[in-house]
Amino acid sequence: MKKLSQLQIGKTGIIKEFTDLEMSLKLMEMGCLPGEEIKVERVAPLGDPIAVNVSGYMLSLRKQEASTIILQ
């Protein structure tokens, strides 16, 4: 069980589920749906936030938000 926040730059994963119900609704509205491929594009110098590519567009997430996304 790997979290999005643990993924290295350039690596991809498939969204499996979410650990936080409230946050999952927000993330799904932004295109982070189960079964979607997600790729870490950039990480800020201090590690927060991270830029990911999901559903064909770039999305910036805080580490705390990214840690609620479980990958396959």
Structure description:
The chain has one domain (2-71): Ferrous iron transport protein A (FeoA) (SH3 type barrels, Roll), CATH 2.30.30. The chain is built from 2 helices and 6 strands. The chain has helices at residues 21-29, 63-66, and strands at 2-3, 12-18, 37-43, 50-54, 57-61, 69-71. A 6-stranded antiparallel β-sheet has the order 1-6-2-3-4-5. The radius of gyration is 11 Å and the shape is globular. Keywords: Iron.
Helix and strand layout, with pairings?
Layout: E1 2-3, E2 12-18, H1 21-29, E3 37-43, E4 50-54, E5 57-61, H2 63-66, E6 69-71
Level-2 CATH architecture: Roll
Q: How far from one another are the termini?
A: 7 Å
State the share of residues found in helices, binned by percent.
10-25%
Task: Give, in spatial order, the strands making up the sheet with the most strands.
Answer: 1-6-2-3-4-5
What attributes does this structure have?
72 residues, alpha+beta, SH3 type barrels, 6-stranded antiparallel sheet, 2 helices, 6 strands, 18% helix, 40% strand
Describe the structure concisely:
With 72 residues, this protein is an alpha+beta fold. 18% of the residues lie in helices and 40% in strands.
